[in-house]
Amino acid sequence: MDTLKVTDLKKTYGIGETAVEALKGVNLSVKKGEFIAIVGTSGSGKSTLLHMLGGLDRPTEGTVEIDGKNIFTLTDDELTIFRRRKIGFVFQSFNLVPVLSVYENIVLPIELDGDEPDKEYINKLIDTLGLSDKKNAYPNQLSGGQQQRVAIARALSSAPEVVLADEPTGNLDSKTSRDVLGLLKVVGERYAQTIVMITHNEAIAQTADRIIRIEDGEIV
């Protein structure tokens, strides 16, 4: 079963002679529990594609279906709620709230949605990511690798349908990058998460189940 399905996705910025086609009819299917890497050089359209997959921007044409729902039929308010419940984001910058503890940062998306965290699941997640002894620490007391692990835990905290990772190791050294990616893969497999990772790094892409290449707004 496809958790994520993209059909004829196009995105054009500007009009007339200044128009830029960032995406030129992308088609893509990702199965539940699959870990894919989308690889491309700067300007290839990979970040635009990720923004579309996460509903952070709307396409010129085409559809993105998550769990069978075309997300672009939703209003902006409905899409915000859908994103919070169904999509987890891991960015290059960790985006942790400095005044919140590790545990508070992880459960923040759930509490913003007005729900109670599943403490057993959250604690298992924290343990899997090797953060059990850091639950009460603050972001400025953590290394870069630990901060990114907190960001991964936060992305997974609401058990979303899809996790989108945008250059998740861009601010980490090579050893920490390997460790963090290994943990992301382990957690994805353990909790049957569908993960889509954007990267320009071929070595990092090799950790995924499948590699998809994008050039000039098209999958090649």
- Unreliable spans are none
Going across the biggest sheet, name each strand in turn: 6-7-8-3-9-10
Number of strands: 10
What is the approximate shape? Answer: globular
Number of helices: 7
Order of helices and strands: EEEHEEHEHHHEHEHEE
Mean pLDDT, all residues: 91
User: How far is the first residue's CA from the last residue's CA?
Assistant: 23 Å
Structural domain count: 1
Helix content: 25-40%
CATH architecture: 3-Layer(aba) Sandwich
Question: How would you sum up the major sheet?
Answer: 6 strands, mixed
CATH class: Alpha Beta
| Rg from Cα | 17 Å
Which structural category fits the helices and strands?
alpha/beta
* Beta strand %: 25-35%
Summed up:
This protein has helices at residues 46-53, 76-86, 102-112, 119-128, 144-156, 174-190, 202-205; strands at 2-13, 20-31, 35-39, 61-66, 69-70, 87-90, 162-166, 194-199, 210-215, 218-219. By secondary structure, the protein is an alpha/beta fold.
